[in-house]
Structure formats: C-alpha cells, structure tokens
Protein 1
Amino acid sequence: MAQAAVEPGLIGEYEERFASSKRMHERAAQSLAGGIAHDGRFIKPFPIYVDHATGAYKWDIDGNRLIDYAMGHGSLILGHNNPEVMAAVHEASGKGTHFGSGHEAEIEWAEKVVELIPSAELVRFTASGTEATLLAMRLARAYSGKPSILKFEGHFHGWNDYLIKGEKPPFESPSNPGVPDEVGRTVAVLPADDLGMVEERLTQGDIAAIIIEPSGGSWTSIPLEIEFLQGLRDLATRTNTILIFDEVITGFRWSPGGAQGRFGIIPDMTTMAKILAGGFPGGGVAGRADIMEGLLFKDDAAWNSNRKVIHPGTYNGNPVAATAGYTCLGICANPEIQIYCDNLTARLRAGMNTVLENRGIDGCVWGESSVWHVILGYKVPNRAAGDLRAPEGIPSDVLKASGKAGLNTPLAIAMAIEGVDLFNGGGLLSIAHTEEDIDFTIEAFDKSLTRMQADGLV
Ligand SMILES: Cc1ncc(COP(=O)(O)O)c(C=O)c1O
C-alpha cells in the first residue's frame, strides 16, 4: 500500500522541528542508497537522524528528545545503554574485538540460551536474524532430505531469498525483484489460520520444515490463535515435519523462554536475534540435538565432505556481541523484566484505545506482551475491551501493511512533533520506560489526533 500524502500543516511543522534531519537526509541520499540503511526506517518526507540515546529516550541532531518505541528494532528490552551490559561490553572490547578463535564468552552465551529456551539442546550463532532463519532452513533440509519450506502470509523472517516470499501484501504476488523463480518454488505460503490447508499441503511430502512467527506475522500485526500454534505442533509431530519458531522478536520478550516458554508449545528449532545479542549484531539457531548435529565434524571423511551442513561466518559468536548477549540474557532470566514491560504496554494500549473511544475516532491499538500497533480509519467492533489482542474484522493484508500505510505516516509525523518516535506504526517497550513515559505518550497521541483533525485527516 502506498504511503498517504501528508497535509501541509503537519509537514511544515515537521520540517521546522527536524530541520537538521531534513538537511542530513539530503546529504545522506548522495552516498547512502535512499539515505537509509534499512527499509523500515523510510518515512516520507524524510527520516529523523539521531545523535545519541539513553534509557527510553533518543535525541535527534536538532536536540529534540523522543521517547523511543523502536528500541533497537526490539533488541533493547533493557533500554539504551543498560549499565550492566555496557560495563561488560567495555571490558570485553578492551580485550579485543575479534579473536578468530573460540572463547569463553560464546560458551557462556550458548549456556544461557540452553538454560532459557525450552527447545534449545544445542546452539549455533550467526551474525543476524536473517542468517539464523537461513541456517535453520538449511539444517532442516539437510536433516529431512526434503527441499521445501512452509511459511505463512505476512510472517517476516528476515530478507533472505527464500523467506521473503509472501511477506508483504499482496501475499500471493509472484513478484520478488532479484529472487529467482526457482528459489520461490521451494517455499509454500499459506494463511496462518487454516490447519486443514496446512495438513493438505503436507501430504505432498516435500516439506522439510514449517516456520512461523509464534506472535503472528510481524510481532502481532496479524494476530494468531494459540490453537493454530498447538495444531501446527501436533501436525508437525504426526507428519515428522520440523517445526521452527522464529523468535527473533519474541525470544526473551514474551517470557524468559520466549513465546514457547509463555505458551508451553515447544518447537523443534528456534531462531533468535535482537535481545539475544543485547543490542549488538548477532543471531542464533537452537534446537534438537539430532538436527543441530548436522553441523558437527565427525571422524568420517565422507560425512565431512558430503553431508555435513556448512556454516562459516566471520562475525559468528563475536566476543563483544557474545558478552552483551549473555549479560543481557542473565538479566532477562528474571521474569519480572517481561512482566514489567507487559504491564506497561497494556497500560499504553488501553490508554490509547480510550483516547480513540473518547474522540469517537475509528481505529484500534492492539498487541501482546510488550508490543503494540495502531490502525486508524477502521471500525473495530470489539474495541470497547480497551486492551485487545486482536482487532477483529480487518483483513490480514490491511493489518500487515498498516504500519507504514494509510494514516500511520501522518500519525508518526505528528507523534514525532509531540516527542514520540513510533516504529512501523507502533512499538516495543523496555524496562527503561516508565509510567510517566506511557502517560506522556497517551497524551501525545491525543494531541497528535488534534493535529490530524486540524489537517482534516481524521
Ligand atoms: C521475526 C523476525 N525474524 C527475522 C528477522 C531478521 O532479523 P535481522 O534483521 O537481524 O536479520 C526479523 C527482523 O526484524 C524478525 O522480526
């Protein structure tokens, strides 16, 4: 869906408030493709450029303070510059940033993952979440000897050639520029609400693994029923298909043991990144030992040269990221961390829904755990509940696109003017956020709607 045009009133104020960012964007576009480093950071007319951050806040290059709901794209559940993580990182980086050898920090990191994530018997680290899902698919294909992967409409698993299929609406689009059709043919995409279709597809016998965001597509944008997850688990067990939970967002956020810990539904393999590496670049795959053992070297030359799963990667298990990671996971092992963030986010969702209710504006704020999304311009029959897991009656392609479509661009601009940085039409919280930040945000939302009403947008 195209971004909505923003009316001049809001744009004018935005350009004035963030004048240095406007200039920096013009400069950036001369050397940095599109002036950005991540598609998700694109916003019209220009993104805000940040100078520094601490706790729940970041300051742009004009000195404006913003309450941050991007939080390192979800990696900073402890807030910016958590003192314990930073102290550990300073010490580690003083010892060297890359040994090109094994080291204790990567072992401590793996031990923490095995301790916390129920499905983790063995772990292998990667440099990102995209690489983690890539490796998980390779391991599953090698283990099963089957070529295909089953994924779900609107579920995001990074930008690798395979799993980008069916990620954005229209989900059935055959067009993925740069991805060969042959690659796309090894990935099946289904809606995440029809177990019968999944069962039917599995009968073709070519599916090595099913991969899913256990939160629903794009961290609850497209809600998912727990019964569907449980049904998938049962089907996968019955058909001997590997079930992969992509816990890049939910890992250590939904509970210390991720979504699988929260729901008690245990996959065969788990992919992780973000919180895993404590705000530093890093990812990982964990899972059943018999599948992970595909990575092992054996006293068998034929295995090593023909059947072992290949996995190099310069930055795998980097000592600085490993140190940030195990320090962060050590803190996240305390369930009070997730409970605090969940409660605060419930307060935010409820407060924002009350604002919509009081103003009689169509729309909804929803989410689960410590994430939230907003959509404006849609009648939501069940909004009265205040704190919703799912807006009923809005099609999944609309929900998926809502972060950057419709009224969410002018809303993001209005919220920035009010001192709040949204992330893809919503956000993710941290222990650095306070009740005062939440109340400030609810008020900023109210004021933003006033601005949008003044521009005739709502
Ligand atoms: C569920 C999920 N999987 C995979 C990824 C890809 O991770 P990365 O951006 O580290 O490559 C993301 C990134 O947002 C994600 O949300």
Protein 2
Amino acid sequence: MIDVKLRPSFGRRKARKMRAQSQQAYDKILPLVRLAPEHVPFAANASEVWLEIGFGGGEHFIEQLRCNPTVSMIGCEPFMNGVAKFLIQLKPENYDRVRVWHEDVRHLLHVIPASYFSYVFILFPDPWPKKRHHPRRLITKEFMTQLWPTLKEGAFLHVASDDQPYVEQIQDVLYGFPGLILCEGPPSADPQTWSPRPEGWPATRYEQKAIKQGKKCAYMCFQKRGRGSSE
Ligand SMILES: C[S@@+](CC[C@H](N)C(=O)[O-])C[C@H]1O[C@@H](n2cnc3c(N)ncnc32)[C@H](O)[C@@H]1O
C-alpha cells in the first residue's frame, strides 16, 4: 500500500529525453527484472539477498553482482535515466538474481519478510542541503525503524555521504541506534576525521563527482547485532 503522505526523498524521475539505447533497455529489460510487491520474496533459494537503495546509474550495483556471483540483489531507484543506465550494463545471465524496484524504497519495505537482507547499501543519499528540504532526507529514525526488521541478525549496512550536515544527521540516527554496531566509520561529522573509502566498497558516480570537486566523503559500516556479529 502506498502512503501518499510521504515526502519524496528523490529529486526527479526523469532528467531528459533518453537516448535510443537507454529507452530500449528501459522498455525491453525493465519488465524482465521489475519487482512487483506480489512477487516478494523473489529469490527463495538465494543464499543471500542484498538491497541497494538509490543505486543511481548502478556502478556499485553492477560491481557487487560481479564480485558476488551467488548473491541476489534488489535495487531501488525511481530515476528513469539511472535505471536505464544500470540495465544497459546488466548481463542477461544476471537477470534471475536481480530485481529493480522502480519506486520509493519506503513503499517496498512493508512487504519484505522479516530478516530478509544480509546487506543494505545507501550510498550518497540526496543531501537536501536547504533547511526547508531537510524533511525530505531519507535517513531518519522513522526510516530506520522501517528498515530494521528486514535486516537479518548480523546483516551489514553501508552508508556514505559527502555532505557534512547530513553526515551529522546520519550519525545522530545510526550511532547508538539500539542493536546496531558501528564496525567502521568516523568518530564525528568533522571531515578532518573522515578516512578514504574502505577496501571492497565499489566507487559510485556521485562519489567520484564529489571527489573531483575536492570534497571528502564519510563511509560508515554498521552491523545488526546477532549471533555472528563482532560484539
Ligand atoms: C545523490 S544520488 C546517488 C546515486 C548513487 N548512489 C551514487 O552514489 O552515484 C541519490 C539517489 O537516490 C535515489 N533515491 C532518493 N530517494 C530514494 C528512495 N526513497 N527510494 C529509492 N531511491 C531513492 C535518487 O533517485 C538518486 O538517484
């Protein structure tokens, strides 16, 4: 069920007219991998299901698929041009283990079974820097409360941002969130304390743009406390 009161946390659904190749991928491939709520869970036999929220052009998504051939992944992205870009790169042999939720992730979470995801990635969520837009930021206590039951015990959550005030908000929400352990991440929202991207985190387009502009990025890894977790 769609909650119409939600304030969109994304900017736009479509940027410009798509090129023929993108339009073709969008029209032909998306129906093969598009996730419908009635088809959740989509991969009953999967060893693990991972979730990427706001995958943009899919650079990180594609790289994780390449490096983790037994994992199934759901990617959420309302932005058409981003979805098309991802689909162009997606190999047909991976169609079975990929599903795209071409909507707001918050409309998906309530149909996800409990303890479903082993990994969740939220990389460079829209920062909404203007004060009046802060309510549009995705990472809030309410959102985490919604995401929480879908995480397996011992599941990992990766979050990254280059926006200092948003990093502060993310740390307020996630550092000290009951049951969530900080495995790796800066001690504060001061960019002086931020370290380079950890090994094994594929780069994203937004991140590369930020670095080119001379910005630093904060990378945070959390784990849901459980039998296998490190604390
Ligand atoms: C700043 S971009 C970063 C994209 C990509 N992760 C990267 O680092 O290049 C944030 C993306 O999150 C998507 N997004 C924002 N809110 C979302 C939501 N509620 N559900 C799914 N995707 C969302 C936007 O459409 C946008 O493509």
